[in-house]
Amino acid sequence: DSGVTQTPKHLITATGQRVTLRCSPRSGDLSVYWYQQSLDQGLQFLIQYYNGEERAKGNILERFSAQQFPDLHSELNLSSLELGDSALYFCASSGGTSGGANTDTQYFGPGTRLTVL
Amino acid sequence: AQSVTQLDSHVSVSEGTPVLLRCNYSSSYSPSLFWYVQHPNKGLQLLLKYTSAATLVKGINGFEAEFKKSETSFHLTKPSAHMSDAAEYFCVVRTGGFKTIFGAGTRLFVKA
Fold this sequence. Notes:
The structure holds two protein chains of two kinds.
Chain A: E1 5-7, E2 10-13, E3 19-24, E4 29-38, E5 42-50, E6 53-57, E7 64-68, E8 74-78, E9 87-95, E10 107-108, E11 112-116
Parallel strand pairs in A: 2-11
Antiparallel strand pairs in A: 1-3, 3-8, 4-5, 4-9, 5-6, 7-8, 9-10, 9-11
Chain B: E1 3-6, E2 10-14, E3 19-21, E4 23-26, E5 32-38, E6 44-50, E7 56-58, E8 64-68, E9 73-78, E10 87-94, E11 100-102, E12 106-111
Parallel strand pairs in B: 2-12
Antiparallel strand pairs in B: 1-4, 3-9, 5-6, 5-10, 7-8, 8-9, 10-11, 10-12
């Protein structure tokens, strides 16, 4: 158990809908990362937050947005969902005393499996 | 630009024989390199990481990797495979800009 929790575990929804995925980092970790894992694209980095501020952006679509709250949990919002958004979405967290350095180990949650029908 | 190439999509070994999973990277800066393992229907677990200290890095479960700057490689090895090692392995690079880039993954099969 990594200490990172994600809810829900599974989500089934329809095209055009909007969903919110939630992540609670390990106690004390200031950085939160979001990833998408699909069969055709592999594991893609979406976005990183550090202590409430956006730190880095990867291949995140404009229909997707994220935020990190004062209690450090994070939410990933996916809107106008398409069939191709079906994937496993992982959250990871890392210690932040180094300011979210590249050397930080990221601890991954179990993921949320999103199915868009 | 940074990139990671895992040279084999699948590797099959017999139990008790050595494991070699190959990874090459491209980076304009000194990279931090990681190997993660993903067992079926599970999250990712860190095996080991290189952060510009010793070039030979030892990880969990008997795995180790050697950073070779001249070859831009970070291959993962284990002297003796166990059935429980069957999983997907990801080589990961992080460089300036804080982006994390995953390789495509190598699926390791271990035969009894």
